[in-house]
Amino acid sequence: MRFSTMFIPTVRETPSEAEAISHKLMLRAGYVRQLAAGLYIYLPLGLRVIEKINRILREEMNAIGAQEITMPVLHPAEVWQETGRWDAIGDEMFRLKDRTGRDMCLGMTHEEIITWLASREIRSYRDLPQIWYQIQTKLRDEARPKSGVLRTREFLMKDSYSFDIDEDGLEKSYQLHADAYHKIFSRCGLKFYMVESDPGMMGGATAHEFMAPSPAGEDEVALCDSCRYAANVELARSTPKASEERNWAFEEVSTPEKRTVQEVSSFLNLKPEYFIKSILVLSNSGPVLALVRGDQELHEKKLSKIIGEHRPAHKDEVKEILGVEAGFIGPMNHKIRIIADPCLKQGVYVSGANKPHYHAKGITPSKDFDAEWHDIHVAKADDFCPKCNAPLRIEHTIEAGNIFKLGTKYSVPLKASYLDENGQEKSIIMGSYGIGPARIAAAAIEQNHDKDGIIWPKSIAPFDVEILPLNMNDKNTVNVAEKLYQDLIKKDIEVLMDDRDERAGVKFKDADLIGIPTHIVLGEKNLKEGLIEIKDRKTKEAEKVAIEEVVGRVKDRIKN
RNA sequence: CGGGGCGUAGCGCAGUCUGGUUUAGCGCACCUGCUUUGGGAGCAGGGAGUCGGAGGUUCAAAUCCUCUCGCCCCGACCA
Q1: Domains and CATH numbers, chain A
Q2: Is A311 a residue whose pLDDT tops 90?
Q3: For A324-355, b where at least 16 C-beta lie within 10 A, e where not — what string?
């Protein structure tokens, strides 16, 4: 393609709404434009990147025997009502009515639709297994679209669904996907981790996420470099560092107006890990006191798995239920249910004394209070790995893909069943697997850029090479560039030629911004000596090559 | 949905506190001409703005008040 005729609106200054690096660079380099919050237009360069990614997705999905189909974006409510998600999902679903008043929604995901299909078409164990996929637009009325293309209300997703006769079959399909995903993310040039994840509302027991490390990511994962334990902090387990031994006798100490662990800790000059943090929550079955160590955070999701839905108690509720104002509550002498993190089993602690402006020092768990012991803390850096006890790291990541074992969550309500060898009717066992191409693109930029712009991995760059004829008024430059352009195209190399009548500086700046991996620079002086520069976008290193050797050299570079 | 910030030319911003000095200004981009041509050129000339919208206060509003819409950030939420 010729730069002069391709629509590549680069801008020097970053629009003020952009914060994330990928967002800034995609705007500046002319890849996308924002229509409204969470709605993006992909310009020619941006589309080329997405298509490159989609091609890799298709190749790897086809390689595991998945078959591409396409399903509607507009869905009738009935199918969603049958699985209960019409009611379970709240404002995040775009809902509308057709002209006859029939309830409809825009697809956030396609489990319902594909299961509907399977329920009508699959009858025998001979029809299984199947893996069907599509690359289709999803719509979600996100509470907070953010970070450019990373979290949007409308986005493309490669979603595949597996159908098997039993758990073993599902395990195979799941593993096929895990392997395919490793290949996909590797081919796209991403650094990534496969981590254990919370199956959440998708149902099922097992789920993993493919996470691309980046400060722009909203998810945190706990990682063990020693045994490769990797889990989203939403469910990561960890063993906190043991706190030092103390021999405190029980005593009450005056702590006027000191309520938070931080306040009391600095007032008494004792580390937060010597404290018990007591948090009162209200569950459907009554109030529960949750205890974690002072240096820990209470993990709401872990607690939910034990006591069900709950919310923190308000200040007046604390006083009413425990008889003390918040800030001075301790675990002793309460009749309500107490859940405590296991790390509190060892040691003696400081906590509220259950009377205003006093804390109690020398509390011995199990002796001074009883509790049910469950892991309810948030894993943090320098905690120890639950599997091998090595220290954990915490990293910010972008969720680029996920895989779920669904089981029969959708096949039962939608009656997707088959007859086995014995003529018995059984529910199909399903899995669901997603990848967001835009997130791959954004993560690639987050992981590969410098102060001048994007540095695309070769596999997903919009073009293989960019030709920069520096002086378009020099006939020789133009002639050589034109020939080179044609020769490269004949070799099936994707070329962008900056044939604009711009100054050299402008071309260099734009080329760096856009981030095509290899640049071919045609300068007047070099050409007189029969030489052309081949420059690497990432290292900025340039080699001078004889004109006739350029095509060969470029081909070599693209392969490597 | 809670907290915060912003909305002035295509983009980035100043002006708003303290109303009138401005026919609303600057840089970049854009158009014309000449010069220039290896890291976002120089000179000269030019086009472009209902100051997000509505209502109000006032002799007078980009500026003060009320409401409203939009965008961004933090949190909640996230199949």
Answers
A1: 58-236+394-445 (3.30.930.10), 251-373 (3.90.960.10), 463-559 (3.40.50.800)
A2: no
A3: bbbbbbbbbebeebbbbbebbeebbbbbbbbe
